[in-house]
Write a structure and sequence with these properties.
By secondary structure, the protein is an all-alpha fold. The chain contains six helices and no strands. Helix 1 packs across helix 5. The longest helix has 22 residues.
């Protein structure tokens, strides 16, 4: 139970940070994509660098968690449809001004329009799973 509360607290804090840096504001997203204001791009780059350093640290420690259990880290294969999927994600992010993390921050801010974005994300995820279950080799 305590672990779940810690995860919840971290999620709330993460949403707060996303909101404070403007990652949940459509205008800030628009300005980033048009190159007018790149402060959000720097935030994203900082997150990539921190994540990279964390992965390097984890690898240096033998990919073990705090309890000493092995953590399996697999590199995801790029399939034929990876570029199409990335394009759909980018177009959706640009149109909605939200990605999966920021849409939750928008909902937390009380932006009702974000519920439509979340609905689209859930429908797209369901559709992807449905297609993949019918044609498992489609992305191979």
């Amino acid at each position: 139970m305590m672990k779940k509360l810690c995860f919840l607290a971290f999620g709330v804090y993460f949403g707060f940070v996303l909101s404070r840096v403007g990652a949940s504001d459509y205008q800030v997203i628009f300005q980033m994509f048009t190159g007018e204001d790149l402060h959000l791009a720097w935030v994203i780059l900082t997150a990539i660098i921190v994540g990279n350093l964390g992965m390097r640290f984890l690898k240096a420690k033998g990919n073990l968690d705090r309890s000493g259990n092995a953590i399996e880290i697999k590199q995801k294969k790029l399939g034929r449809l990876s570029i199409a999927g990335a394009a759909i994600f980018g177009i959706g992010w640009g149109m909605a001004g939200a990605c999966p993390g920021t849409v939750l921050a928008q909902i937390g801010e009380g932006r009702i329009i974000a519920l439509f974005t979340l609905s689209g994300m859930l429908a797209g995820t369901y559709l992807y799973g449905y297609i993949l279950s019918r044609w498992p080799k489609i992305n191979g």
